[in-house]
Design brief:
The chain has helices spanning 3-6, 11-32, 35-42, 47-54, 56-72, 78-96, 102-130, 134-159, 166-182, 199-203, 214-244, 249-253, 255-296, 303-311, 313-331, 337-366, 380-401. With 418 residues, the protein is mostly helical. The chain folds into two domains: 7-189, Growth Hormone, Chain: A (Up-down Bundle), CATH 1.20.1250; 205-412, Growth Hormone, Chain: A (Up-down Bundle), CATH 1.20.1250. Helix 2 (11-32) packs across helix 8 (134-159), helix 2 (11-32) packs antiparallel against helix 9 (166-182) and helix 13 (255-296) crosses helix 15.
Length: 418
């Protein structure tokens, strides 16, 4: 890298990119957190139907690399693709709020997530293109995304509208605003314009060579398996907190993002002292602890257990997912790093979370209660023990079989807020 390349981006550029990240994750947080409550209490969908709808982002995550690789990287400027996807997505998200039946709502959300999920990668790539020193500057830009997630959660919690379509309408309005704002972002021409389409690049098939390493294969398998129980949290935690009576759950859940910021800052310190293997194991253990706390906590004297379960998000997410990105970056040859990260995203955010969405819906439906005064509509203790057992099984698998290499860890920024 030249000296000129190391010079940071001008302040106005960083400010514009930070605003993009803020709006991007306001949109994401507006519907992802509370949609389960809206479906369960507002639309009266059962657990299996809620799980199916939460599988639409996973389906979109499996398909978005095709779109980005075949269209966005070859034919159109990134800011224009981003604008089109957010404007169209905003219209589809608004349309979803007009649907009261499962079939119509599912179809609308599938169409919407097919527009939204590619924007996660596009906003990251656009930011990297215009930052002179991405390793130093990107975290400062990206953190505005987490702040945006927190802000929209606080607003929704304060309004007390989690069981209504209002959060989705907020997301739709901000999505259209971001689409228009994207047209003012720095011009970012397609990277692969004029190059031949390679299916190996689009699918990340070059990363499969890494599976010859037993520890890497265990990492991939464990990442896939862990994404199954973790989807219980993303799909049903807000509905759970609403049903047991925690005040303003959407606002309360933003404590997890506050925790995430804190642990992200401390990650380099932990990596030096614990190493990749112990960081991953600690992240898995945190998922087990979170679900056990949810299983035995309540909104009364044991409310502290629920709050600790939420605050564990920084360890759950940063120690497993961000450390996992670091591990992949270490193990992959420079030529295949992008393919390797894309392959892991496909396995985890795509296949793993799709299976997890389906399974969590089945489990929640199986724990429905007949209407009774004073009882929550679901027997949540039994629900949370299922992902706790699943996460514990993955933890044991990792502890026994995962032996990564000893190369020094170099922190890399997270690319998702979840």
């Amino acid at each position: 890298m030249t000296d000129a390349a190391r010079v940071g981006a001008p302040g106005p550029i960083r400010l514009r990119l930070s605003a993009m990240m803020f709006l991007q994750y306001v949109v994401y947080g507006s519907w992802l957190v509370t949609m389960g409550t809206y479906m369960g209490q507002g639309l009266r969908f059962d657990g299996a139907q809620i799980g199916a709808v939460y599988g639409t982002p996973a389906l979109a995550a499996m398909l978005s690399p095709f779109f980005v690789g075949m269209v966005a990287d070859r034919f159109f400027a990134t800011e224009r693709v981003l604008a089109a996807l957010h404007v169209l997505g905003g219209a589809l998200l608004l349309f979803a709020t007009t649907q009261s039946g499962f079939g119509g709502f599912y179809a609308a959300m599938l169409a919407y997530t097919l527009c939204f999920m590619p924007t996660l990668a596009l906003t990251n790539s656009l930011a990297f293109d215009h930052l002179g020193d991405p390793a130093r500057e990107f975290p400062r830009v990206r953190v505005l995304g987490t702040i945006g997630w927190i802000v929209v959660g606080v607003v929704i919690g304060q309004l007390g509208v989690e069981a209504t379509a209002t959060p989705l309408r907020i997301g739709a309005a901000v999505s259209v605003a971001l689409g228009l704002y994207a047209l003012t972002l720095p011009h970012t021409p397609p990277h692969a314009a004029g190059t031949a389409l390679s299916w190996r690049d689009v699918l990340g098939l070059d990363a499969l060579a890494l599976m010859k390493d037993r520890s890497f294969a265990v990492f991939v398998l464990g990442s896939f398996l862990l994404c199954i129980p973790l989807q219980f949290y993303y799909a049903f935690a807000n509905l759970f907190l609403n049903e047991v009576g925690i005040p303003a759950p959407a606002r309360t859940m933003t404590l997890g993002q506050v925790s995430e910021i804190g642990f992200m800052v401390l990650m380099p310190w932990f990596l030096v002292r614990l190493g990749v293997r112990n960081m991953l194991l600690a992240g898995m253990a945190a998922w087990v602890a979170r679900y056990l706390l949810f299983a035995y906590g309540d909104a009364g004297d044991a409310a502290w257990m629920l709050y600790i379960g939420i605050l564990l998000h920084g360890i759950c997410y940063d120690f497993f997912f961000v450390t996992g990105q670091i591990y992949v970056d270490q193990r992959a040859d420079l030529r295949f790093r992008a393919a390797a990260q894309g392959f892991i995203a496909f396995v985890t955010l795509g296949v793993g979370q799709f299976v997890g969405s389906w399974l969590s819906g089945v489990v929640v439906k199986a724990h429905e209660r007949p209407a009774a005064a004073g009882l929550a509509p679901h027997e949540w203790s039994g629900v949370w023990l299922v992902p706790a057992a699943g996460a514990f099984g993955v933890l044991v698998l990792f502890a026994l079989l995962f032996r990564p290499g000893t190369r020094d860890a170099t922190p890399v920024p997270a690319t998702s807020p979840a």
